[in-house]
Design goal:
The chain has a seven-stranded mixed β-sheet with strand order 14-17-18-11-10-19-20, with helices on both faces. Strands 7-6-5-8-9 form a five-stranded parallel β-sheet, sandwiched between helices. It has two domains: 305 residues, Aldehyde Dehydrogenase, Chain A, domain 1, CATH 3.40.605.10; 192 residues, Aldehyde Dehydrogenase, Chain A, domain 2 (3-Layer(aba) Sandwich), CATH 3.40.309. β12 and β13 form a beta hairpin. The protein is globular and about 85 Å long. By secondary structure, it is α/β, with parallel strands linked by helices. α14 packs across α15. The chain contains 21 helices and 21 strands.
Length: 553
């Protein structure tokens, strides 16, 4: 019998399945915070719900309670003071494993239905989640709503669709009949059961606590696994709200709520111990290379899905829209002050300059014009604060201060006053110029609003350097500006070899650091920046096993 929640959300699931097959534009959750869509009082209600959390303990009735922990500091200077139950990892693991058989019994359809109900409930609380994302990460309001809300929900739905599709290809049963010539055939009945691998640990990041968490959370959940969400210590609230909603939906549908739990801690060693626990069979992580590489080395035998640091880059050969290119790059470098895993860091420009309809533009002029474009784009403080948001980590602030040592300053970073949050740490990008030979400066990730215009011998050298950087240091995004088909062909071949996504001649309203659910493959799994893509069958396939039983008929 089909689960009622599967029937309720069948149209949404069908839409997602069609979207991942056709890769066209589609979204289940409206990205604009319109009162007509979310309700006239949705924004006020969401803000009130967020404020009701401040200065209190967040309510999560989880096993193994050992006290409470409060670790968040808002980049906007707002006092949060939210504490969370600190629970014993062994208790959470035991409770998750105990909940696993009941979850498995629902089958792929039932699990998909429950996951889609969780996503629908999260969507209804998008304003609350968005406010929590904004105040813990430093994102501007619109990004916090879109990326932290509907876009993250779409990524979660995308994972459910892939998980359902993979499991639906496994038949529940079969009759096996092998002819035996003159003798009666051999006949067996076979049953096939999809079984989750075990406890899934999803480790969140500080800058995108929902967008980078929902794919792993829902991929693991939909394939039959209990999930422990370990949020970044400075972005706990968005994860806590998510876990709270998931637990409510599970309980309402007769599933042990301890299938999904929150592991809040202020000790790095606690996360390491949990990751090494034998019951933890899969780990999702987005963050720095140090901990990502630690997971690879110390969690052998487990499935680790990791998105790590890289050096995203763009090659500029020529353009037929110089001003449009500069505007596009200015927005790209400014969005959320470069605190995105997809933001461009190195911009390769030939020493002899680039061809434009106005003639040859020398290297120094390209760098200066790009700096001027960024400065002009951020000249209105209202636009600047909305686009830049606030700097999330003190480490990023320190990198901005240290940046001038790495090159010639084309555009210095500025501190911008926020009219609503006077203590907010708002910084504009710093743009540096350097020679390609100064690899120690630009050929490692400088996370934050730090970008380099790198002088290369020519376009061929730029393409070769881009490929080498991606292969050795990884990247999630690469861009190209050119008017020559031969250059497009050469860059395409280089990105196929280095296995990285390529954006060509973006001058309009699409930017290299944006990734659309159902259409864009976020990460290829083929270079050091990410060992898996959020948006393909491989992201879900190794999260479950098929166990069979058979007998003679």
């Amino acid at each position: 019998m089909t689960h009622p929640l599967f029937e309720k959300h069948r149209a949404t699931l069908d839409g997602a399945l069609n979207a991942i097959r056709t890769r066209g534009y589609w979204s289940a959750y409206p990205e604009m915070p319109s009162p007509k869509v979310y309700g006239e009082t949705a924004q006020a209600d969401g803000k009130a719900a967020f404020e009701a959390c401040l200065g209190k303990e967040f309510s999560l009735d989880q096993p193994g309670r050992q006290g409470s922990v409060a670790t968040e500091k808002s980049p906007y200077g707002v006092t949060l003071g939210v504490s969370y139950p600190k629970c014993d990892a062994e208790a959470l693991i035991a409770a998750g494993l105990a909940a696993m058989p009941g979850w498995q019994a629902l089958g792929a359809e039932g699990r998909a239905g429950v996951c889609l109900e969780i996503l629908e409930r999260i969507n209804k609380r998008s304003f609350e989640v968005a406010t929590a994302v904004m105040m813990t990460t430093g994102q501007g309001w619109m990004m916090a709503f879109q990326a932290g809300g509907p876009h993250a929900q779409d990524r979660g739905l995308e994972a459910v669709a892939y998980a359902y599709k993979a499991q639906a290809e496994v038949p529940a049963e079969a009759t096996w009949e092998k002819p035996q010539g003159k003798n009666p055939p051999l006949v067996m009945k076979k049953h096939f059961e999809v079984v989750g691998r075990g406890v899934a640990l999803v480790i969140g990041c500080g800058t995108f606590p929902t967008w980078n968490t929902y794919p792993g959370l829902f991929a693991a959940l939909a394939t039959g696994n209990p999930v422990i969400v370990k949020p970044h210590q400075n972005a706990v609230l968005p994860a806590a709200i998510t876990v709270q909603i998931a637990r409510e939906v599970l309980a309402e549908n007769g599933v042990d709520a301890n299938l999904v739990t929150l592991f809040a801690t202020d000790a790095h060693a606690d996360t390491q111990a949990l990751a090494r626990h034998p019951a933890v069979q899969s780990i999702d992580f987005t963050g720095g290379n140090a901990f990502g590489n630690w997971l690879y080395e110390n969690c052998r035998g487990k499935q680790v899905y990791a998105e790590l640091a890289g050096v995203n880059n763009i090659v500029i050969d020529s353009t037929d829209n110089y001003k449009g290119m500069l505007r596009n790059l200015a927005f790209t470098l400014s969005l959320y002050a470069g605190q995105m895993c997809t933001t461009t860091q190195a911009i390769f420009v030939p020493a002899g300059g680039i061809d434009t309809p106005e003639g040859k533009v020398p290297f120094d002029q390209v760098a200066a014009d790009l700096g001027a474009a960024v400065d002009k784009f951020l000249s209105d403080p209202a636009v600047a604060t909305a686009v830049l948001g606030a700097i999330q980590s003190p480490d990023t602030l320190a990198r901005i201060e240290a940046a001038p040592q790495w090159g010639s300053v084309v555009l210095a970073s500025k501190k911008i006053d926020h009219p609503e949050f006077p203590q907010a740490e708002v910084r504009s990008p710093v743009l540096l110029a350097c020679d390609a030979s100064n690899e120690a400066a630009w050929m490692e990730e400088r996370f934050g609003p730090i970008a380099f215009v790198v002088k290369v011998a020519d376009t061929a050298a730029a393409i070769a350097l881009s490929e080498r950087v991606v292969k050795t240091h990884g990247a999630l995004t690469v861009g190209l500006y050119t008017t020559q088909q031969a250059v497009i062909d050469a860059m395409t071949a280089a990105t196929l070899r280095s296995q990285v996504a390529l954006s060509i001649n973006l001058t309009g309203g699409v930017f290299v650091n944006q990734s659309a659910a159902y259409s864009d493959y976020h990460g290829t799994g083929g270079n050091p920046a990410a060992n898996a893509s959020y948006a393909d069958a491989a992201f879900v396939a190794n999260r479950f096993r098929v166990v069979q039983r058979r007998y003679h008929v």
